[in-house]
């Protein structure tokens, strides 16, 4: 295989694919990217960790000799990063070696044959629909912070996508908080299986979306695999296995009868929580909220660091009471609210609280209280 490619093109492509590659691998070829040069002048670069696979097709300056080879992903990425801007990179592979040349630089890297490179067998992907990249990015941002990191509850280690009431719903929970994002069901998504997209796939997808926010993303899926195509023909294709498990019926924990309504500015609320939580320790991450007419008093008491309190103006007309929340969880949710007000629908100190921007907002959050 012999091909020449612009350094900027190679670097951008490698930055997309190399992050899938794990730093430590028991199977040596999983540390490599597969590079395929086609006679037509296209270069296909692929990486996988056996659960997730990313393929990008880019245009080469020239393909002198079609072929395919695998080479260390992180090594080639580091080399491309350090090469001079604007240079052209020559990739020449033969006899278990790849020679990388650019300007006066020359590297000789070990390779492994392409036949040993594993591919994810996708099978049939019967459900197919499109979403604007900007909508998909927003959906991920509004939900992924609530994904559980507990490996024992593996079925919570991703975002749950399902169609209900003619809406596409995405939900994530770790048992302490729940985030749900709802949008009108896209054409082609009706009848899709309920799927859980793993955390790593969500993270890689969000990175890729950043560069194509003005395009549409093609989503194809079956009960066990999902494929995202970004940027059309010369774009990136991300394929992932889905989590094989049953997501709990989260709708049961969304409170419907919470009758105490607190309206507050999310920015000043966030900053107040952040300030009083400064003295909180690992053991006492709880922030106490005392609700009174037209104000909320935030306080934290720590046996080691003393106490802190702050008043935040708010709209509240029900009976006063006190409730505690994990400060970090509360900040995570408030950080997702873009408007000037946020609504907290409360019941009592022991019941889950519903948080949303307003009743028209596509995002909805539920937060379990803490004892304080």
Automatic annotation (TrEMBL):
<feature type="domain" description="DNA polymerase III beta sliding clamp N-terminal">
    <location>
        <begin position="1"/>
        <end position="120"/>
    </location>
</feature>
<dbReference type="InterPro" id="IPR022635">
    <property type="entry name" value="DNA_polIII_beta_C"/>
</dbReference>
<dbReference type="GO" id="GO:0003677">
    <property type="term" value="F:DNA binding"/>
</dbReference>
<dbReference type="InterPro" id="IPR022634">
    <property type="entry name" value="DNA_polIII_beta_N"/>
</dbReference>
<feature type="domain" description="DNA polymerase III beta sliding clamp C-terminal">
    <location>
        <begin position="252"/>
        <end position="371"/>
    </location>
</feature>
<dbReference type="Pfam" id="PF02768">
    <property type="entry name" value="DNA_pol3_beta_3"/>
</dbReference>
<dbReference type="Pfam" id="PF02767">
    <property type="entry name" value="DNA_pol3_beta_2"/>
</dbReference>
<keyword id="KW-0238">DNA-binding</keyword>
<dbReference type="GO" id="GO:0005737">
    <property type="term" value="C:cytoplasm"/>
</dbReference>
<dbReference type="GO" id="GO:0009360">
    <property type="term" value="C:DNA polymerase III complex"/>
</dbReference>
<dbReference type="GO" id="GO:0006271">
    <property type="term" value="P:DNA strand elongation involved in DNA replication"/>
</dbReference>
<dbReference type="InterPro" id="IPR001001">
    <property type="entry name" value="DNA_polIII_beta"/>
</dbReference>
<comment type="function">
    <text>Confers DNA tethering and processivity to DNA polymerases and other proteins. Acts as a clamp, forming a ring around DNA (a reaction catalyzed by the clamp-loading complex) which diffuses in an ATP-independent manner freely and bidirectionally along dsDNA. Initially characterized for its ability to contact the catalytic subunit of DNA polymerase III (Pol III), a complex, multichain enzyme responsible for most of the replicative synthesis in bacteria; Pol III exhibits 3'-5' exonuclease proofreading activity.</text>
</comment>
<dbReference type="Pfam" id="PF00712">
    <property type="entry name" value="DNA_pol3_beta"/>
</dbReference>
<keyword id="KW-0963">Cytoplasm</keyword>
<comment type="similarity">
    <text>Belongs to the beta sliding clamp family.</text>
</comment>
<feature type="domain" description="DNA polymerase III beta sliding clamp central">
    <location>
        <begin position="131"/>
        <end position="249"/>
    </location>
</feature>
<comment type="subunit">
    <text>Forms a ring-shaped head-to-tail homodimer around DNA.</text>
</comment>
<dbReference type="GO" id="GO:0008408">
    <property type="term" value="F:3'-5' exonuclease activity"/>
</dbReference>
<keyword id="KW-0239">DNA-directed DNA polymerase</keyword>
<protein>
    <recommendedName>
        <fullName>Beta sliding clamp</fullName>
    </recommendedName>
</protein>
<keyword id="KW-0808">Transferase</keyword>
<dbReference type="InterPro" id="IPR046938">
    <property type="entry name" value="DNA_clamp_sf"/>
</dbReference>
<keyword id="KW-0548">Nucleotidyltransferase</keyword>
<keyword id="KW-0235">DNA replication</keyword>
<dbReference type="InterPro" id="IPR022637">
    <property type="entry name" value="DNA_polIII_beta_cen"/>
</dbReference>
<dbReference type="GO" id="GO:0003887">
    <property type="term" value="F:DNA-directed DNA polymerase activity"/>
</dbReference>
């Amino acid at each position: 295989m012999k091909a020449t490619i612009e350094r900027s093109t190679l670097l951008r492509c490698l930055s997309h694919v190399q992050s899938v590659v794990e730093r430590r691998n028991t199977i040596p070829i999983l540390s490599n990217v597969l590079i395929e040069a086609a006679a037509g002048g296209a270069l296909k670069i692929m990486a996988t960790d056996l659960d997730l696979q990313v393929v990008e097709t880019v245009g080469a300056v020239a393909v002198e000799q079609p072929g395919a080879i695998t080479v260390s992903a992180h090594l080639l990425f580091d080399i491309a990063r350090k090469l001079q801007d604007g240079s052209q990179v020559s990739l020449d592979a033969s006899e278990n070696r790849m020679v990388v040349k650019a300007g006066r630089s020359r590297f000789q890297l070990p390779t492994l044959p392409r036949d040993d490179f594993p591919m994810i067998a996708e099978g049939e992907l019967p459900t197919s629909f499109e979403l604007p990249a900007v909508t998909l990015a927003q959906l991920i941002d509004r939900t992924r912070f609530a994904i559980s990191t507990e490996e024992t509850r593996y079925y919570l280690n991703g975002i749950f996508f399902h169609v209900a009431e003619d809406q596409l719903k995405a939900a994530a929970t770790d048992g302490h908080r729940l985030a749900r994002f709802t949008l009108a069901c896209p054409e082609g998504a009706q009848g899709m299986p309920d799927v859980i997209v793993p955390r790593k796939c969500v993270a890689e997808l969000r990175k890729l979306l950043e560069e194509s926010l003005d395009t549409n993303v093609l989503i194809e899926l079956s009960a066990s695999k999902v494929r995202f195509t970004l940027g059309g023909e010369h774009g990136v294709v991300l394929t992932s296995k889905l989590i094989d498990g049953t997501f709990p019926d989260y709708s049961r924990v969304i409170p419907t009868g919470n009758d105490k309504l607190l309206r507050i500015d999310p920015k000043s609320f966030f900053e107040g929580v952040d300030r009083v939580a400064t003295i909180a320790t690992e053991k006492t991450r709880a922030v106490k909220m005392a609700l009174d007419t037209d104000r909320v008093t935030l306080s934290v008491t720590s046996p080691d660091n003393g106490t802190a309190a702050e008043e935040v103006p708010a709209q509240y007309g029900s009976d006063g009471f006190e409730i505690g929340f994990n400060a970090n969880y509360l900040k995570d949710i408030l950080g997702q609210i873009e408007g000037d007000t946020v609504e907290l629908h409360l019941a009592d100190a022991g019941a889950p609280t519903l948080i949303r921007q307003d009743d028209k907002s596509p995002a909805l959050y539920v937060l379990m209280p803490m004892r304080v």
